[in-house]
Design goal:
mainly alpha
Length: 207
């Protein structure tokens, strides 16, 4: 199979408002570069301390234990995987934000993802469907992702790279490679949508 014989078609403009310049919106050499860069990150995660899962798992169990009647597991799993994925790639779970910020981030991410799915189905006509709320939600997601990038860079500046890497290894490794906070932010959002949605759906279907 010759990789260059195939292209993304309309996927890039359909997803770009949310995902920006990341592995799911790239083709050719940029895609290969992103794949290799992220592959190294995930290979390293196989040996990472998994304590990041402790609090999200405890919160999930507590939520299900206290529920009565019929429980929508998918909603619970989407909250769980948002917490675990952000903990692994941002260096801290989104649960570390206050309740209002958590709710704003989660709702914006859900809505923007939903509209992106519609835009993909519209293919070359994706430009025709771009609600104002969609633009606002994309900007919110990017603002929160950028907050974590800036936090990691500030940690490195104040405490040195070695100490900062203990808390923000994923972000700082991407920054070392890309040298652009905006590109790091976009790659984080790409990884977030992959790690959060697929895992939550898998858990829902399995149970």
């Amino acid at each position: 199979m010759n990789f260059t014989d195939y292209g993304m078609g309309s996927r890039r403009p359909g997803l770009f408002p949310l995902l920006g310049e990341g592995i799911f919106t790239q083709d050719g050499h940029p895609w290969k570069h992103s794949r290799e860069m992220l592959r190294r990150q995930f290979a390293r995660m196989n040996y990472q301390d998994m304590s990041a899962f402790d609090e999200p798992i405890n919160n999930l169990v507590a939520e299900l234990s206290s529920a009565s009647g019929v429980v929508d597991l998918q909603l619970a799993f989407f909250r769980f995987t948002l917490a675990t994925t952000t903990a692994l790639i941002f260096g801290e779970a989104v649960e570390g934000l206050d309740d209002d910020d958590q709710d704003t981030f989660a709702k914006s991410f859900d809505y923007a993802s939903f509209i992106c799915a519609i835009r993909l189905r519209l293919a070359d006509f994706c430009w025709a469907y771009s609600p104002s709320e969609f633009k606002k939600s994309c900007a919110t997601v990017k603002r929160y992702a950028n907050h974590f990038v800036q936090q990691a860079l500030k940690d490195m500046e104040e405490n040195g790279e070695e100490e900062a890497r203990e808390r923000h290894l994923f972000i700082l490794d991407l920054y070392k490679e890309l040298q652009d906070p905006a590109l790091v932010r976009d790659q984080l959002v790409n990884v977030l949508i992959a790690g959060r949605d697929t895992t939550a759906c898998l858990l829902s279907w399995a149970l």
